Amino acid sequence: MEAVIYICLGLMLAFGVMAVMLHSMTKSAIALAAASAALGIIMYEMGSVWAALIEISVCSGLVTVIFISAISLSNMEKKELEKVYEDKKRMSLLPVILIVSGVVLVIAAMALGVSLPKVDHAANVAGDLREILWNNRQADIWGQIIIMITGSAAVVVLFRERD
Amino acid sequence: MNVFGFENIILIVGFLLIISGCYCLIRTYHLLKITIGIELAMKAVTLFITLAGFVNGNVDLAQSFVITTIVIEVVVTVVAAGIAINLYRKYGSMDIRNLRKLKG
């Protein structure tokens, strides 16, 4: 299990950085989808099966479709590509920042002896995800419904063709 | 005490993803790229919530939070994509500096 998690963490970080740094928007969207898929595998390995399923189908599938639609609806012109190129120049520092941050975080963790509490599988107090969603987190369900209605209204308003 | 246990590595990778997302937010003017930065930071948050559930042994509660986060993530993406397309239709580019010219 741990080996899969380590590999997927590495892939997730690599694809995430690629999504931010890549020149092409389409490739960025695909890299983000790959990062989502890696996250889904990590979640599955850690026992969050339903969340992993939704992560892979929605974040890796639907969100990528939304990005590709937005990219294809806006035929990128040369002017736009030049802006992306400027982005590429601006992003060139990111790998250095990440390496420095990573080293600092590892040194800080070692110096402070940071360690998470031991995983307590015996204390699995939860029952069923459906029960928790419907009984304990009902406010979240209502919030989600309101957010989805807002999103639908936004789609109708923002994607409307002008006369 | 194992500093290099996978829980700590998840924390470090999560922080690095948040740094990448925030750097993208700061350094780019392309609205879709900014949305990708937000998405990346939210993925790190999802990872943290999953880790919290795993460590506490309360995976199902964490899953319910993750599902809420994913719904919010999708709606944020849809709204940002809609704004980006409208921006492109109006100004021919997705540069967020054009948003300053909008009235109302």
Describe the structure.
The complex is a heterodimer of chains A (163) and B (104). Chain A is mostly helical. Chain A has two domains: 111 residues, Up-down Bundle (Four Helix Bundle (Hemerythrin (Met), subunit A)); 38 residues. Helices cover 79% and strands 0% of the residues of chain A. Chain A is built from seven helices and no strands. In chain A, helix 6 crosses helix 7. In chain A, 26% of the residues are buried. Chain B has a single domain, classed as Helix Hairpins (Orthogonal Bundle), CATH 1.10.287.3510. Chain B is built from three helices and no strands. In chain B, helix 2 runs antiparallel to helix 3. Chains A and B meet through helix 1, helix 2, helix 3, helix 4 and helix 5 of A and helix 1, helix 2 and helix 3 of B.
Largest sheet of chain B: none
Tell me which oligomeric state these chains represent: heterodimer
Span between termini of chain B: 57 Å
Number of separate strands of chain B = 0
Mean pLDDT of chain A: 83
The CATH top-level class label of the largest domain in chain A = Mainly Alpha
| Level-1 CATH class name of chain B | Mainly Alpha
Compose a concise summary of this entry.
The complex is a heterodimer of chains A (163) and B (104). With 163 residues, chain A is mainly alpha-helical. Helix content of chain A is 79%, strand content 0%.
Structural descriptors:
heterodimer; A: 163 residues; mainly alpha; Four Helix Bundle (Hemerythrin (Met), subunit A); 7 helices; 0% strand; B: 104 residues; Helix Hairpins; elongated
List strands and helices in order, with pairings.
The complex is a heterodimer of chains A (163) and B (104).
Chain A: H1 2-21, H2 25-45, H3 49-73, H4 78-91, H5 94-112, H6 129-136, H7 138-158
Helix pairs in contact in A: 1-2, 2-3, 6-7
Chain B: H1 6-27, H2 31-56, H3 59-91
Helix pairs in contact in B: 1-2, 2-3
